[in-house]
């Protein structure tokens, strides 16, 4: 594994650093999980796209820069170091898009990806359901064939839909063969939230954000894809009928692995943590040595994650997908995020509740071991599919 950057990669770093320095808002934007904040973040997404920074590793034809994965890592590092806004398009560009690149037809790629990079279509993930949160194979929402109209009729309910209240489209799993085994008979559907029969009901969280939603599907019709823009605008199937589990596992690999949580995110947090520790020491705060040890450990773990990611990218570039090993990533980065924020709150002591940035980040970090598949589930995957241990 080569840990040095080439001259062209260094030039790429300088280019994106210069653009971010000139364009990142001077003050943090309101949370993108509120209606006000989402609208402001959408303007930021338009600016990113117009300058060619929205999806740097995508082909130029789809709004990207044809950048390598190494250059994408550089951009992510610079992006977070600059304090740039959260990406409200992440469910589309980081989760769905890699799956479309892998399983989508050329017509689907040509239609969906440019709209996604331009933030014209805003996607939410329709997986979790009542009584089927982390148990993705236990979903009950169904899709029934309608030969007369030439398509499928979707029914059911999706919940915990991140930014579903503000999104325009949904991707998710539906059961097309109720007689099949749990992991079979599932199909991966794409559908606009404006379709007849769709009901989106947003609800607030304890932290005040309001982007979560429940989505109810009451006989939503999705036509067969004939390759025309008219049918794709009305939704469609990604991959083959009945093969949705395999397609979904590609999405989970992106969600749990490299694309959703790049090292740049945690390196920026670790840098802020070190700055906070220095400030507290300079102010004469008597810090418990155990707290300083926790700060040191968090920084070390952040660097370890960055190195692990470089090894992962090396494997991907050489043709070895992460697959089930992405569960390692998910467990590590989600628990690292909690440790980083816990260390910050310990540094702040009694003032922690008055620090909105670190406290809000801590509250969100607690959801990390739950979303993208609970860490209990991830440890089972690691044990069975990576280490080859027998089931209990």
What can you see in these coordinates?
The protein is α+β, with helices and mostly antiparallel strands and 392 residues long. The chain folds into three domains: 7-88, no CATH class; 123-243, Butyryl-CoA Dehydrogenase, subunit A, domain 2 (Beta Barrel); 257-386, Butyryl-CoA Dehydrogenase, subunit A, domain 3 (Up-down Bundle). It is built from twelve helices and eight strands. The model has no long low-confidence stretch (mean pLDDT 92).
What is the topology?
Blueprint: H1 7-23, H2 35-50, H3 69-81, H4 90-103, H5 106-117, E1 123-126, E2 142-146, E3 151-161, E4 169-175, E5 186-192, E6 198-202, E7 213-223, H6 229-233, E8 236-237, H7 244-256, H8 263-282, H9 289-317, H10 326-348, H11 356-365, H12 375-386
Parallel strand pairs: 1-4
Antiparallel strand pairs: 2-3, 3-7, 4-5, 5-8, 6-7
In short:
By secondary structure, the protein is of the alpha+beta class.
User: What is the tally of helical segments?
Assistant: 12
Low-confidence stretches: none
- Tell me the overall shape: globular
Give the neighbour order of strands across the main sheet: 1-4-5-8
Classified by CATH, the class of the largest domain is Mainly Alpha
Share of residues in helices: 40-55%
Strand content: 5-15%
Along the chain, the helix and strand elements come as: HHHHHEEEEEEEHEHHHHHH
CATH structural architecture of the largest domain:
Up-down Bundle
What is the end-to-end distance? 37 Å
Q: CATH superfamily of the largest domain, called what?
A: Butyryl-CoA Dehydrogenase, subunit A, domain 3
Counted beta strands: 8
Q: CATH fold name of the largest domain, please?
A: Butyryl-CoA Dehydrogenase, subunit A, domain 3
Query: Whole-number radius of gyration?
Result: 21 Å
Overall pLDDT level: 92
Structural class: alpha+beta
What assembly state would you assign to the polypeptide chains in this entry? Answer: single chain
Number of domains: 3
Largest sheet data:
4 strands, mixed
């Amino acid at each position: 594994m080569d840990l040095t950057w080439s001259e062209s990669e260094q030039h790429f770093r300088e280019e994106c650093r210069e653009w971010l320095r000139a364009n990142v808002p001077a003050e943090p934007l309101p949370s993108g999980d509120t209606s006000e904040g989402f609208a402001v973040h959408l303007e930021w997404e338009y600016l990113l796209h117009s300058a060619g920074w929205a999806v740097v590793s995508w082909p130029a034809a789809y709004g990207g820069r044809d950048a390598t994965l190494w250059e994408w890592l550089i951009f992510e590092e610079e992006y977070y170091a600059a304090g740039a806004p959260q990406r409200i398009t992440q469910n589309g560009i980081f989760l769905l898009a890699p799956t479309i690149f892998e399983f989508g037809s050329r017509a689907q790629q040509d239609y969906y990806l440019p709209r996604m990079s331009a933030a014209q279509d805003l996607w939410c993930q329709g997986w979790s359901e009542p009584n089927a949160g982390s148990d993705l194979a236990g979903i009950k929402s169904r899709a029934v064939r309608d030969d007369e109209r030439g398509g499928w009729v979707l029914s059911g309910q999706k919940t915990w839909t991140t930014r579903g209240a503000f999104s325009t489209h949904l991707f998710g799993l539906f059961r097309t063969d109720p007689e099949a085994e749990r992991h079979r008979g599932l199909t991966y559907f794409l559908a606009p939230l404006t379709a007849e029969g769709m009901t989106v009901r947003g609800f607030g969280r304890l932290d005040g954000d309001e982007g979560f939603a429940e989505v109810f599907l009451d006989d939503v019709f999705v036509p067969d894809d004939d390759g025309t823009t008219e049918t794709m605008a009305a939704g469609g199937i990604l991959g083959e009928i009945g093969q949705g589990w395999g397609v979904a596992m590609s999405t989970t690999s992106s969600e749990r692995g490299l694309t959703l949580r790049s090292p740049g995110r945690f390196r920026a947090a670790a840098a802020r943590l070190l700055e906070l520790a220095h400030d507290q020491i300079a102010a004469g705060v008597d810090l418990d040595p155990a707290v300083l040890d926790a700060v040191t450990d968090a920084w070390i773990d952040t660097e370890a994650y960055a190195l692990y990611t470089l090894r992962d990218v090396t494997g991907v570039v050489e043709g070895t997908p992460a697959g089930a090993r992405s569960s390692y990533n998910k467990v590590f980065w989600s628990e690292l995020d909690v440790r980083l924020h816990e260390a910050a709150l310990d540094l702040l002591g009694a003032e922690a509740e008055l620090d909105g940035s670190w406290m809000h980040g801590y509250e969100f970090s607690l959801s990390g071991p739950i979303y993208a598949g609970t860490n209990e589930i991830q440890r089972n995957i690691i044990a069975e599919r990576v280490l080859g241990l027998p089931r209990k």
